[in-house]
Amino acid sequence: MNEWPPKEIFRVRSKPRRLPREEYQRLLQPVFFSACTRQREPVLLERDMARVLRALLDGNASRRGCALIAYAIMPDHLHVIACVALPGGDALQFFTDFKRGAANAALHAGLGEIWQRGFWDRHTRNTRDLTRCVQYVMNNPVAEGLCERPEDWPHSEFRGYPRVPR
Question: Which DSSP string corresponds to 38-58?
Answer without folding.
Answer: GGG-S-TTSTTHHHHHHHHHH
